[in-house]
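Record type: ASSEMBLY
Status: queued
Input:
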Amino acid sequence: SGYNVAVVGATGAVGTRMIQMLEQSILPIASIKLLASKRSAGKVLHFKGQEKVVEELVPDSFRGIDLALFSAGGGVSKKFAPEAIKRGAVVVDNTSAFRMDPDVPLVVPEVNEAALSRHHGLIANPNCSTIQMVVALEPLRKVYGLKKVIVTTMQAVSGAGNRAIKELHDETQAVLEGKDYEPQILPVSGDKKHYQIAFNPLAQIDVFEEDGYTHEEWKMIHETKKIMEDEDIQVTATCVRVPVAIAHSESVWFELDQKGATVSKLQELLKKAPGVVVQDDPDNQIYPQAVNAAGKKDTFVGRIRPDQEQADAFHLYCVSDNLLKGAAWNSVQIAERLDALNLLRVPK
Ligand code: A2P
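Status: finished
Output:
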């Protein structure tokens, strides 16, 4: 007994972590099917020590599947998620394809698990930077309310996939050796120009949209309001790609609705919060770091301090593994919660 699970994009940066998270999961798993493009068909991966051959994704891949985790790009999700649902699979989609659809719950279990009960066969996994920010802010919002957020992200290249990780490595080596290197992926593989990421932060993640904001920045704005179910929270973001392989770091300024918060009260709330580890001890130089967060499921929070000019406003600094809590772990956690709530089936 257990679920028949499919991973779509199984060979990718997120897909390989989805397999790891499923291996560690409490979810009862009867079988696993690894799907990718034709390019990877026949490649051998492992699940719980057993060899699994990657198959080419086709509509009938989902026959007999109960749960499908998608992370192969928005186009693949748009085309194949309906095929999966039609064949009875519940889809947890890590792409941005359906996140803002009013019929699709956008879920971070620590924040809005109740939204799961409204699913029609598909649950969207939010943007990686949004997830860790709402995990850090929700425990404070619950007690003090949240008026405004200004966030600057420092995002790892793995958010742009395995080819971007390789570009960071190869390009860094080329720069160190004084050799030429032609960037081909970053900042955005599909955009017209490509720039050096080695030793060079890039203030562009995803394509530019209206008002000079990038699509990534709009995702943080819209998704935060949807997950917190409050259109009145003022959110603005600047998203920056930095020469880091894994784990996003964020500088978050926030204004609370109510008076009375202090740094120690906020620290106490975060120490009790699910999915949060407080690392905040300036006297001992303790604060979150990407190298320590990589490979972990938690969101690490530190540098909590008051704004020096504005009442009821604070800063914090948070770091989390963008491939785990930002993607694969949050998706598997959604599946675990669906199972626990008896919601892991496509409603009639
Ligand atoms: P493949 O290895 O066959 O290219 P990343 O985010 O690291 O770039 O990974 C993207 C994932 O999405 C990979 O597993 C990739 O498979 C998969 N993928 C990309 N395009 C398609 C497609 N058209 N059909 C199925 N899987 C795809």
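Annotation: The CA atoms of residues 107 and 114 lie 9 Å apart.
Annotation: Residues 9-15, 36-37, 39-40, 57, 72-73, 76, 161-163 surround adenosine-2'-5'-diphosphate (CB under 6 Å).
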